[in-house]
Amino acid sequence: MNPLNLLFLFADNFAFIVLSAVGLAVIFGMMGVINLGHGEFIMIGAYGTTLSANAGVPLPLAMVIGVLVTAVMGFVLERTIIRRLYDRLLDSMVATWAIGLILTQGVRIALGNSIPQISTPLGTIAYGEFSYSTYRVVLSVVALAVLAGLYVLFTRTEFGIRARATIQDPDTARALGVDTDRMYTSTFVIGSALAGLTGALYAPTLTVVPGMGSSFLVEAFVAVVIGGPSVLLGTTLSGGLLGVIDALFTNLYGTFFGQIAMLLTAIVVIRLLSNGLTGLVEDVRNRMEGE
């Protein structure tokens, strides 16, 4: 087992899980809506980036376009469909699942089953007989930056205070002058933009096809479920835990066993920790304060 190779695998897995899950976690944790079309939102970001890059737009700007396209789509969907489904968990699941199917088939009809792909930038890092994509290492830094940015947004700004007040008690927040409708819309747009960012960032590393969203959805839901009620802390902890498990078993036994080990870990966490990893952190914190 090469320690450096294991470190790179962990960083790659951590970035993939965190970036896949964070948009879903924001929408679910802040709004109580389970977006089963989350994978297709990621797909839209990837398509927006790839099509823009193929049209000659520089890759960083193409990524911005992919994020903006997804954010605008999220705004339209929230104003026309999603806003009618708050506090209707099962209805929101069915509706967003249907939206995902429509997006997948719509892209397939409009653009076909494949489009020209873009190459992965930045080359590779060589170490001994091993090498690793520099771009994937950069993605792990981006994942940490996204988490830090969301922490500042939701805990250190007036918008974050209003958003958390809306989620905790919308009636009281409305009585205090908070435009809760606007907060719901803004939060959904942020979650959609984060999904688009994930698609934009991974567009150079994956084959961009209509069904690509499913490769992100499983990890995203597993991370959100075992993370617990805290959006940012839960996503960080679940990304770290699942990233370590996946990297360790992938390095020893291959990708298939890494995925199996990750899912088994999720099952154990769900079985033993009813409030997820953040619930465990809160329990430990309360015990330490009690002493």
User: How much β-strand is present in the residues?
Assistant: under 5%
Tell me, rounded to a whole number, the average pLDDT. Answer: 87
List the strand order in the largest sheet: 1-2
Number of helices: 12
Determine the fraction of residues in helical runs and give it as a percent range: over 70%
Distance between the termini: 41 Å
The stretches of 5 or more residues where confidence is low (pLDDT under 50) are none
Q: From the alpha-carbon coordinates, what is the Rg to the nearest angstrom? A: 19 Å
Q: Please provide the count of β strands.
A: 2
Approximate shape: globular
Q: How is the biggest beta sheet arranged?
A: 2 strands, antiparallel
Helix and strand composition category: mainly alpha
What count of structural domains?
1
- SSE string, helix = H, strand = E? HHHHEEHHHHHHHH
Written overview of the protein:
- The chain is mainly α and 291 residues long.
- The chain has one domain (3-210).
- Helices cover 77% and strands 3% of the residues.
- The protein contains 12 helices and 2 strands.
- It has a two-stranded antiparallel sheet with strand order 1-2.
- Strand 1 (124-127) and strand 2 (130-133) form a beta hairpin.
- The radius of gyration is 19 Å and the shape is globular.
- The protein starts with a helix and ends with a helix.
